[in-house]
Structures are given as C-alpha cells and as structure tokens.
Design a protein that fits this description.
Layout (H helix, E strand, L loop, with lengths): L23 H21 L14 H7 L3 H9 L6 H11 L3 H13 L2 H7 L15
Helix pairs in contact: 4-5
C-alpha cells in the first residue's frame, strides 16, 4: 500500500499588511503637524478639555519630550496631576505661552466639585499615630 501524503496548504496573503511603518521624515512631518494642531487649538480658545489633546499626543512626541506617553497622557484626563515643570515643558514643546495650559487646567480643576472637595480634605494631626503620645 502506498503512503498518503499531505498536500501543502496554500499560502493566502494577509490582508492589511500588518503594522504601518513610517520613514523618519514622515514621522517628523506627522509630529510637526500634530504640534501645530495642538498649538492652534490652544490659541483659538476652542479647547473645552485637555482630554481633547490625548488623541493628538503620540508616543513619538512623548519620546521627544523625554516623558512616558502613558503617564503624560493621563495628565490630560486629570489635570491636577500636571506639575509646573510638565506644563512649561509641554508649552515650550508646542510653542505656546505656558499660561494657556495653566489657565485651562485651572478652569477644569475649579469646576470639578468632586476634585475640589478631595483637594480640600486634610488629615487631623490628632488622628495621626506619630503625634499621639499617651
């Protein structure tokens, strides 16, 4: 009896081709376009929430700034987490006055009642173990 042989499966080309790759020049152009978009949004006064910038802020931009993309993007969602240093660096990076970022963050923080209430909570010294000497 003859052995049965398996026929090799036909190779079907993948659709979509996988991950898109950009040249360095394409990446530079993309970053420049996004920086200009963010700058225009701030300067036009049409920004209602820093969260709107999250989709424009790319990993490549974070790498250029020397920050973690995940951590920095989170600050757009919760502006109380922005430090002065980060606000200034971001302002210099996109080419705007730092006051525009600060004013927007202040507006968002001051209108969020829950956040303001949390910021006003303090511990009582008498409730802290290290200050209770009995």
């Amino acid at each position: 009896m003859a052995k049965r042989t398996k026929s090799a499966p036909l190779e079907v080309p993948k659709k979509g081709g996988g991950r898109k790759t950009k040249t360095v020049e394409d990446l530079k152009q993309d970053i420049a376009t996004k920086r200009l978009s963010i700058k225009s949004i701030f300067e036009s006064g049409s920004l209602t929430s820093l969260r709107e910038l999250e989709s424009l802020f790319t990993k490549a931009m974070a790498n250029e700034m020397g920050v973690s993309h995940t951590n920095f993007s989170g600050k757009f969602k919760n502006p109380v987490e922005f430090s002065l240093k980060e606000m200034y660096r971001f302002a210099y990076y996109i080419g705007i006055d730092q006051k525009l970022i600060s004013e927007q963050a202040d507006k968002e923080i001051s209108t969020n009642r829950t956040l303001v209430a949390d910021l006003k909570k303090f511990k009582s010294v008498q409730d802290m173990k290290q200050y209770n000497s009995k």
